[in-house]
Amino acid sequence: MFSENGIFAPRRWAALWADRDLFVDAFLVTLQVAVLALAVALALGVVFGLFSTSKARVLRAVSRVYVEFFQNTPLVLQALFMYYGLVMAGVRLSKVTIGVISVGLYHGAYISEVVRAGIQSISKGQSEAAASQGFTHVQAMRLIILPQTIRVILPPLANQVVNLIKNTSVLAMIAGGDLMYRSNAWASNGTLSYGPAYLVCGVLYFILCFPLTVLARRYEERLRQREMQSGTALEGGGAE
Model's pTM, two decimal places? Predict the structure, then answer.
């Protein structure tokens, strides 16, 4: 493995180090796509999450169509369709823009389901109490329901962010200059140093994703402890 012609031979690592700027640039492209796609996904997720809990049947139907379509078709197919379809329609966008839109649309569907579940987890008594105080539906959502929903949905939302970061690798299918594409292209371009390239690629993805996973797990544990303490306090009060 570490011999002269091994997959992790020292000469392969030396070649990678010499071209390290390529991997730095690719890492920055991946980070850029992830941040912009997350902004798109959050905006769509909140909007369609609210649609799915709306009293208007049309809005619920629109949300359902959006969610079912993007959840039940592959992200790779969506990105390729957008890449080739837009060109055939005479619309030319950069590969990074196509990556942002396709990943954002895809994960917006999943985040909308997270938002919907979070809203539905809040007791209906909250909405009824707001209505009795003269709040409109929009005011109740903005001032009462959504602030409580945010605390509930943070752990699953963090998981969606991790998945979004990993799914930016779909840009490799359209030569988008991301981390996955650059690693594969560099290793294939005469060096055949797939071992170091893919290992470094994996480590860089890990650096982005692992802290979010840990934070989500710790926050979820903290919420669980608060719920247990609240339950204990209620039981203690009832016993008195």
Answer: 0.86
